[in-house]
Each structure stands twice: as structure tokens, then as C-alpha cells.
Specification:
By secondary structure, the chain is α+β, with helices and mostly antiparallel strands. Helices cover 18% and strands 35% of the residues. A four-stranded antiparallel beta sheet has the order 1-2-3-4, covered by helices on one side. Strand 2 and strand 3 form a beta hairpin.
């Protein structure tokens, strides 16, 4: 496992902050299910990073499923 590039860290931190208050702001992981609880958010230079997460509304929880860097 490798760390995210330094220039991607501010964008990643911003996503985490937004998820605390507005987890549904990300795009649905499956476009055919726009209201699905699994969401994604691209970040970093050239959107080379992706966060995939699960929103559990009833529990008021957000679970990170994957942080991926393709850069």
C-alpha cells in the first residue's frame, strides 16, 4: 500500500470534511441506481483519485470502502 501523493492530500481532506455534513453530495457508484447508498467522489490533480463510500442514513454513518489513486 502506498500513500497518496502530497498534492492530492488537500483535496482528499476536503472530501472527508464534506462527507461529515453532506454525504449524499457524491455521485452514485451505479448510475442506474441514482439513489443508491454507495457513492463515489473523484479528487486530486486530473481527478486521478477516487473515494468510494457507503452512506448509512439510519445510523448517520459514512463508511469509506476504497480510496484509490490512478495517477
Amino acid at each position: 500500500m502506498q500513500a497518496l501523493p502530497v498534492d492530492a492530500l488537500p483535496d482528499y481532506a476536503q472530501i472527508l470534511s464534506v462527507l461529515e455534513v453532506s454525504p449524499w453530495a457524491g455521485s452514485p457508484q451505479n448510475e442506474a441506481n441514482p439513489d443508491g447508498a454507495v457513492r463515489r467522489w473523484a479528487f486530486g490533480p486530473r481527478n486521478a483519485g477516487q473515494v468510494v463510500y457507503l452512506v448509512l442514513e439510519a445510523q448517520r454513518e459514512v463508511h469509506l470502502l476504497m480510496v484509490q489513486w490512478l495517477g
